[in-house]
């Protein structure tokens, strides 16, 4: 029978040794001094809420738990540095699954050069993984509050794929690009760092663009106008969900960026050089709330209405 | 029906505004530069593992979740600075209980001047609270690895009370000092900071002194000898559990400290002036493992034997 310390050893064996004064195994980790201010976030994935063990491999779970945190670090324009991992494991959780979870997490950690410095194991009825991640800032952080009238709005990648992937998994379809977006979201870390040179505000699109636009407008005290025809969607999402599905989204982990219009072209060129797909979807103006316009410039959606596309019950 | 954002607002309303460049509400918090290196820890309390909702008030749960993390910060000799709180809440968790939990956490946070800078809410089948706490170091950290032959070993406060309190709660006894130690552990933050001026090593006694002595010896590659007659116990623990119960302990959240013998008297005097109860319980020597001696100097307990007092099945 394996005890807590065997589990810890097994888990840690999948990660490189952290380059810090005191790493895992003591009461606290001690971090090396950072050159710039640190940003820090915590996020949790829970069995049967954010994943099921039937549809996600242990490596998928480990990947996703870290990815959702790295996405928050990315949206500040920060460089990932250190993270801690608190694992709640059901009785009898197989050691092989623990290794799989660690491998999925470790592969993503190596890709983004973020070091595991500590953590915690506890038993629980359901599997959950809570990660706290830190990033280092070499420029002022990209907050939600920095958008200004006249800024252009950009979205990275494509929207709606993770939502479609979830629908596929629920229907028993376990392969394809959308399923992969649901299981293995890719945090836009390099884009976030690039955007820190251009953008006035950023956040990651985790709740669906419609809701996250609302967060941006509230925090920045501005109004956002998005053109429906510009929303970046994969062909399969366009066919399966349409613009409504892409807007409501959820778990896209793309970045929503506000960039001063005079910097827009330079930002687009830098993105093209770096291989980052970004799409200009709208603009920021004085006011509050947001609207979505169709190709004729008519309002097709306003805040407050998740009930049905076009039947806006807005509180705008 | 209240949404996630109402819960967040309600929870945050119980905490003072954090003095940081970016506080709760953005994708990450941004921390103010710290003067010294940061230490960081994460720990989790889970319903029916670390508490029951029948025996703990929401405020008890909030207190305990933060206390176990502050205890880790204390054991490094650090000054608490910032923390994040990730809450997993069952469906229908009452808003009044959320406020109670926040109040218990906030009261302890104010006492130790640690600011809530961020967090996360998720639904789950069982209630759990995962906290990540940071502390600032103005002296080298007190690790588990610093004990040296010749050091004296000290324990703060008294041992075994939390274990007795747990037994009381299970028996339906809901009042008394032991129950309070179980519900409301007091992290030894001020003592940890004082000890940073004297000690060579420290850890908090969370798994019981016997087990935590083992951690110290392994990390420091030394041998520890503890005198049974010196173990600090309250009268009620001595009567109810005896030395065996106090040794096996669990959730004491006292500090185990190794202090160079030449600094021992000065340390004791500083503790007396500061109102910190510490008891010299033994000493460190060359070798490995630990032993407990009775009043006649006979070995009564060695590592590996949790089976029965005196029948050591050690792997020493």
Automatic annotation (TrEMBL), chains A, B:
One of its GO terms (molecular function) is magnesium ion binding. Mg(2+) 3 binds at residues 27, 72, 204. Keywords: ATP-binding, Kinase, Magnesium, Metal-binding, Nucleotide-binding, Thiamine biosynthesis, Transferase. Residues 148-288 form the PurM-like C-terminal domain. The keyword Metal-binding applies. It is an enzyme of class 2 (transferase). Its EC number is 2.7.4.16. NCBIfam families: thiL. Belongs to the thiamine-monophosphate kinase family. PANTHER family: THIAMINE-MONOPHOSPHATE KINASE. This is Thiamine-monophosphate kinase. It comes from Myxococcus stipitatus (strain DSM 14675 / JCM 12634 / Mx s8).
